[in-house]
Write a structure and sequence with these properties.
Strand 2, helix 6 and strand 3 form a beta-alpha-beta unit. A 6-stranded parallel sheet has the order 3-2-1-4-5-6, sandwiched between helices. Helices cover about 45% and strands about 10% of the residues. Helix 1 runs antiparallel to helix 2, helix 1 crosses helix 4 and helix 2 crosses helix 3. The chain is α/β, with parallel strands linked by helices and about 230 residues long. The protein has 2 domains: about 140 residues, Rossmann fold, CATH 3.40.50.1000; about 80 residues, Putative phosphatase, domain 2 (DNA polymerase, domain 1), CATH 1.10.150.
Length: about 230
């Protein structure tokens, strides 16, 4: 069956989740933070994901903005950083994350081939709208789908159901792209054709569902023998 629809995870896939900490570290007067920003960014992202999984398992949902704040608070405490102004600055920058450099050209190439494109993300609608607008991707994405419409985070199956419900396509017509190995694995098990963007060179997940493609970044995605 021909691929008709390309769906992307947002954070870490289209948008650089380390950009907020990196931008804050580059600002005047943050020399001490600059040395610790990589560790904080890594811990922030890890806890953001862990808290989303915990809430999905426990059935205690909140929006991704709350999870993002909670993850940052844990990361700052772990690094021994007590700085309310820095906290607010990091959260503000998270609404303006950079897209990875290859993203606009890649999306334009897919759209030029007549493929539907969209985001499927744990992010709240407001967070996603801010990121898409800040990166200038509004005209390159046909839909931005948030888990808030089902009230549970990925990798719960009702989240992946949103793609077919919105685009009217079968799972085998969807190329699902994520930088998260667990997300690509779950999407493959669901029935999507999947591509894992393994930017960090991590080993494959030991989970049901194997991504059909493994990429180092998104630049080669339009050249896959799928379209």
């Amino acid at each position: 069956m021909t691929i008709t629809t390309c769906i992307f995870d947002a954070y870490g896939t289209l948008f650089d989740v380390n950009a907020a900490a990196r931008a804050a570290a580059a600002e005047p007067g943050r020399t001490l933070f600059a040395a610790r920003s990589p560790a904080l960014a890594e811990k922030w992202r890890l806890k953001q994901l862990e808290y989303s999984w915990q809430r999905a398992i426990r059935g205690i949902h909140c929006d991704f903005w709350q999870v993002t704040q909670d993850g940052l608070d844990w990361a700052m405490a772990s690094e021994g950083i007590e700085d309310p102004e820095l906290r607010e600055r990091l959260l503000s920058l998270y609404w303006q994350l950079d897209a990875f450099p290859e993203v606009p050209h890649m999306l334009a190439a897919l759209r030029g081939r007549g493929l539907a494109t969209g985001i499927l993300s744990n992010g709240s609608p407001e967070m996603l709208s801010g990121a898409v607008q800040s990166a200038g991707l509004e005209d390159l994405l046909g839909a931005v789908l948030s888990v808030e419409s089902v009230g549970v985070f990925k990798p719960a199956r009702p989240v992946y159901d949103l793609v077919g419900q919105h685009f009217g396509c079968a799972p085998k017509e969807v190329l699902f792209v994520s930088s998260n190995g667990w997300d690509a694995s779950a999407a493959a098990e669901y029935g999507f054709v999947t591509a894992w963007v393994n930017r960090a060179g991590q080993p494959a997940e030991r989970l049901p569902g194997t991504p059909a493609h493994v990429l180092s970044d998104l630049s080669s995605l339009p050249d896959l023998d799928l379209f």
